[in-house]
Amino acid sequence: LMSRMQQEVITKDVFQFLEKLNKNNSREWFTEHKSEFKGLETGVKSFYTSLMDKLKIHDDIEKLKMFRIYRDVRFSKDKTPYKTHFAGSFSRSGLRLRGGYYLRIKPDESFIAAGFWEPNKEDLLRIRKEFETDATGIRSIINDKGFQKIWGKLKGDELKTAPSGFSKEHPNIDLIKRKQFIFVRNFSDKEVLAPDFILQADLSFQAIRPYFDLMSDVLTTNLNGESLLD
User: Which of 109, 164, 167, 210 is most buried, by CB atoms within 10 Å?
Assistant: First the structure.
């Protein structure tokens, strides 16, 4: 039964290890402390699995992907071999439910995020066409005071001007020129270490649901509102 017990808290030694790794980001140091890392990683993975179980109560989650600690330095100016954070993403199921959730644990820089990081070009065009036609639905969700209190404003990369085929004078150009549609909520170290952190993360993810429902509806229908799914 103990092996089934999942961890519902992030412990202080996780932050302490990441801080030490940040100061000693070398293969020699990491190799020396690998068993400590492995023990902490097991606990962190267990926390992510617990969070996924909570998400599954109110959403349909396909998979949890934990990102490796090893950095790919081939094309990077920064040649340090290790990331100084833990991170994982939760994918929603199938073609029907779009979007995903993300959690990063890092001293002074922990956050959760939700939304659409890299929509493929078909999805991006479909989203832009929707906002060109009508943005009342999306605006009523993202301008809602309760929603903003949790998630703040829509974030992500955007074009400097209108994408090809769209007017830069369009009243919804602020939405149309976006390339990413994400929300981010930052947490202090104290909040991450608090016993209710997993609950706060889950409640925040529950609050993003109207946004996901609307965007999933957009991405599974054509501009006439007809379903694109079988």
Answer: 210
pTM of the model: 0.92
Locate 85 and state its tokens: 């954070």
Tokens 């994400």 correspond to 182
DSSP 68: P
175 in Cβ contact with 153 (< 8 Å) = no
Closest by alpha carbon to 219, among 101, 75, 90, 100? 100
Distance in Å from the first CA to the final CA of the chain: 42
CB 131 within 8 A of CB 158: no
Burial class (CB in 10 A: 0-12, 13-18, 19+), 197: buried
Read off the DSSP letter of residue 104: E
| Residues 160-197 pLDDT 10s | 999 999 999 999 999 999 999 999 999 999 999 999 99
Q: State the amino acid at position 158 in one-letter form.
A: E
Q: Which residues pair with 104 in a beta bridge?
A: 87, 111
